[in-house]
User: Fold this.
Amino acid sequence: MPMKLLECDTLIPEREKHIYIKEAGEDTTQYLPLSDSATIPGSLSERGCAFCGAKLVIGGVLKDTIQMIHGPFGCAYDTWHTKRYPSDNDNFQLKYVWSTNVREKNVVFGAEKLLKKSILESFDEMPVIKRMIIYTTCSTALIGDDPKAVARAVMAERPDVDIFVVECPGFAGVSQSKGHHVLNMAWIHEKVGQVEPKITSPYTINFIGDYNIQGDTEILAQYWKKLDIQVLAHFTGNATYDECRGMHRAQLDVVNCARSAGYIANELHKSYGIPRLDIDSWGLSYMATGLRKIGDFFGIQDKVEALIAEEEAKWKPQADWYKERLKGKKMAIWTGGPRLWHWTKAVEDDLGMEVVAMSSKFGHQEDFEKVIARGREGAIYIDDGNELEFFEVLTMVHPDVIFTGPRVGELVKKLHIPYVNGHAYHNGPYMGFEGFVNMARDIYNAINSPLWALAGQNIQEGDL
Amino acid sequence: MGQTDEIVTFIQEHCLWQFFSRTWDREDNIKNVLSLTFKILTGEPFKCETADERCHFANANSLAAEMKEALPWLEDLPRKDLGTVLSRVKDSLEDITVKHSLNAELNQPSY
Assistant:
């Protein structure tokens, strides 16, 4: 009975289709959790909305682009600053937030004039910035505003600006995954091919599905520099708007997050013949394998082996120090989707840990195929987990540390179980060789911190 | 566990190319990566002339190297037997990731 109905789900038995416990001899042709489907009423989902997937995850990372959120200001504020993706231009994208601040009167009389006024004001206030993404939200989608028409009018008046419109209101899909999809497809069809990049290396790639969380992109950039590989576009870590318009000229698409950005890699293959190479950028072994594949593609194996030797000499002894101390520790990964399959074997192989439970907010069945193939027997695999399920799973598997976001993290903190921010990291970056040592350090520190025990003590003195 | 199953388990745990988004991508990857893996393991000469072929080679070369380390009996397998085993591996991977996959998105015509 590998599909599991938890006790807390007795009143919502549909949840059984979303929870799987792997047993010996099984594969994904027998059991695969239902996913990317509507949250069941009565289940307190941890998901975000479709707009959030477009803005917070992908578009908002661009470092030279005004992010105009066409809606009430809450939509803008709630997708700002909750992920830490810095940039090398003084973090322009993290310092500002833009909103048309739609109010009741705009819902009644329309908000296109307000949108145009907000666009012009923003460009006037920031005259150096010439690029903008406009996002519709639930309210402005429902009243029938036409932001593309407004964007065309502004671009006609100001030929030096370029505007991209993402029409993906929060209700457009079952989770943030829909926003990834809409942005990917609109970008490839409307913007890629408009800018010709200056080629400076015989080896060119797009690095797709990395968002420079706490500097991941900077770690990887060191490798590309040593290998003389030119990254035409990071999609979208530390990237500019125009770099991502020149993706069509790369020789190879290297894909990290296949869930949020596999679409654009597939389309680049279909339209421009650029092959897609999926790699894992977290973990010492995985990173080495990924680099070797890129070396094989370009025929620069010697350079790659030298780089790996240098990095392993520097970082493997530290990773091994943590491995000795983390061996057998149990970990749960409750994040978005791809990090389940990116991390489960990386922490098991490179750090000796055991991943005992994994939950995905917006993963599709493709993600569950990957993670179940890689994950251990006995582990619990959950789609769109809810709060009560998390509490019940804790009593089943007793993890020593949980990788999750701040929302679920606050829940488990109250139980004095260590959590590490699996979305925005605690003290990253976590990618690459150096990054994985940072990750190991954060796991070690979380598990061994005395604060968890101290937090449970009653420090009140005297009688109330 | 038989030789075919050992390789299938290894590939299932290690390789992302078998899990691309759609049926046609998975079939293309499985066929071409395993074909090149056979040539690499047996020392048969080959040329990669297109970007797609070089990408398949990149995946195959890593697979061959990692399998040789993890499954040392591969080195002693006669060429003919290796061909038979990898042919069975191909069938098995296609069964798991394509033909009998429960992934409802696999045959959607657009990405």
